[in-house]
Amino acid sequence: MEDDLDVLEFTQRVYGRGSENMLSLVKNFWYQYCRFTKKNPMAILEGISINVLYAFFDWLLRERKGSLGAASSLQIYWNASCLVRKQETGCYQIDPLIKSQMHGVRQRLAVAHNLRKDKKKKPVLHAEDEFKLLKSRYTSTETTFPHERYPLIMQLAGITDNRPSALLAVRYQHIKVTLLPDPDGGEQTRVLIEIVFHHIKGYLGEKMRTSSLYVSKAAASVRAAVANECGRNEFGIPDVPNEPCLLLCPYITVLALLFADQAFAAPFLTSPEQLFRLRIAPGQK
To answer: Which alpha helices (DSSP H) does 47-161 contain, by range?
Structure first.
């Protein structure tokens, strides 16, 4: 069994879907280039030279004209090319001289192909914009959504700063509802809702989890920041007493969906009244 192990295959790092797609794309372009130039792709990869790299990226920019328009993207393709070489040949090192020379090559190629050097501006959605979108959603008789989850995605996007793919991948098993004692000593329990985002960019390992400790909006924001620093992505949706704008409140939307779809693991929880009647026994947390 030990002799049958393919060391090159089983010791390669596992990447996310997006990274794997990028590596596959660059690999396909490399083999296309070698067919175009009638070169042996493996032999050229093993003995890579700056002449070949310049010619390859010059050819690649011509092939990708219109879709590869930023100098920063050229850096990404170079990084991916290094990984493809490592995967295909098992050669982990690239001559430091070639690495140094590639800085100049990328700069000259960026100028030759008129690549954009400034960072592409991304549109910003403000709270006022979100309010208008959600208002249109709930008041318009013409605009329809296939499911109420779509407005929730807009709400979560604003407070979690997660990628669309992470928001769309959220399922009910990723939501945790916790009863907490009233911090002011009252009888009414507080309900904390937490969402664990799994489809995020980062290390492909098990997401770390923490206990439910925070209730206030400020504490939830601090907790989210700490979680992101530690490589986690678990977000507590704050319960804001006397919420002035229910239209922007994801807390209400999540609870409404949980009850509408009967998503609670406890089958007896079928209405908000039942949830908020629950009490924490003395001495329990």
So the answer is: 50-63, 71-89, 96-112, 127-139, 149-160
CA angle centred on 239, ends 199 and 233, rounded to 5°: 20
Task: Report DSSP state, residue 193.
Answer: E
Within a 13 Å sphere around the CA of 154, how many CA atoms are in the beta-carbon half? 22
Report pLDDT digits (tens) over 174-219.
999 988 887 777 777 888 899 988 766 654 444 444 333 333 333 3
Q: Is 175 left (phi over 0), alpha (psi -120 to 50) or beta?
A: beta
Question: Could you identify the residue written with the tokens 């920041």?
Answer: 225
The whole model's pTM is what?
Answer: 0.58
Q: Strand pairing of 234-237 and 190-196?
A: antiparallel
Residue (of 215, 191, 152, 208) closest to 277 by Cα position: 191
What is the C-alpha to C-alpha distance for residues 41 and 168, in angstroms, rounded to an integer? Answer: 39
Model pLDDT for residues 104-121, shown as the tens digit of each residue: 999 999 999 999 888 777
CA–CA gap between residue 254 and residue 171 (Å, rounded)? 11
Q: What angle do CA 96, 98, 101 make, to 5 degrees?
A: 110
